Amino acid sequence: FYCSWHLPTPTYIPNTFNVTVLHGSKIMVCEKDPAVKNRCHIRYMHLFSTVKYKVSISVSNALGHNATAITFDEFTIVKPDPPENVVARPVPSNPRRLEVTWQTPSTWPDPESFPLKFFLRYRPLILDQWQHVELSDGTAHTITDAYAGKEYIIQVAAKDNEIGTWSDWSVAAHATPWTEEPRHLTTEAQAPETTTSTTSSLAPPPTTKICD
Known about the structure:
InterPro entries: FN3_dom, FN3_sf, Hematopoietin_rcpt_L_F3_CS, Ig-like_fold, Type-I_Cytokine_Rcpt
Strand order of the largest sheet: 3-2-6-7
Number of helices: 0
Protein name: Ciliary neurotrophic factor receptor
GO molecular function, one term: interleukin-11 receptor activity
Keywords: Cell membrane, Disulfide bond, Glycoprotein, GPI-anchor, Lipoprotein, Membrane, Receptor, Repeat, Signal
Number of domains: 2
Membrane topology: Lipid-anchor; GPI-anchor
Helix content: under 10%
CATH class of the largest domain: Mainly Beta
Structural class: mainly beta
Radius of gyration: 38 Å
């Protein structure tokens, strides 16, 4: 698991943080996250342990020193990362359906042994109210009550089947239900028939008169 922290108000001067993690009386190693500021990672020594953890953090700067601590059970902090690769697609010839698929978060250690359940929310962009569906298993769902022709926004959250809390919402997917292509009217114009007759008149041959 990881611990993160922040100051309630910015100090605008350099701060030094010190984090101590205890599992019962045993001191745990807290490895600083190289990519995220003010976060460190702790490896579980005993999975499903009933021994409480205690995390203490102190901060010091040129103005003084302060500290705080929290105590918790392992089971209460289980929170998966959001589901990944959420995709929504229209269903051909179904103007009120959207097919939604997603993947278990890659950081979840063993989906077979520790299955997740999912919570899906969706709404058309023209409305503010979400509709919700809770799913006990699987990584796909078909929305059957979408408004035809309206763009939808869809998000998914995950949670361990037994313990912990829901993840944050996934990155939103957008999709619009299938709509029938408009039919273009075609008009065949037929030109009226015209007849052309050619009349030729043959002039009589000229006559020659010889006068004396």
